């Protein structure tokens, strides 16, 4: 094992390091997928045009909810 490999292992989630190890990558992906996220919001809006309440759920960091709010003016709860 070289020094770089050891440094990489230190970033993985473990009993000692409980912070999600993929947070940085997730944020980078979310930042560069804006068109994709907007397309998802547009598809959902086809079915829920007359609603003023939205419940957010997921496994990300809430950026799809941000796109929803920008498109509709409704902040998901």
From TrEMBL:
Name of the protein in its database record: Methyltransferase type 11 domain-containing protein
Lineage of source species: unclassified sequences, metagenomes, ecological metagenomes
């Amino acid at each position: 094992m070289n020094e770089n490999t050891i440094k990489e292992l230190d970033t993985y989630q473990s009993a000692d390091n409980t912070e999600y190890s993929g947070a940085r990558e997730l944020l980078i992906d979310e930042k560069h997928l804006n068109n994709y996220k907007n397309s998802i919001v547009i598809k959902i809006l086809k079915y829920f045009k007359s609603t003023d309440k939205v419940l957010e759920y997921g496994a990300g960091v809430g950026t799809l909810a941000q796109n929803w709010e920008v498109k509709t003016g409704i902040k998901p709860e």
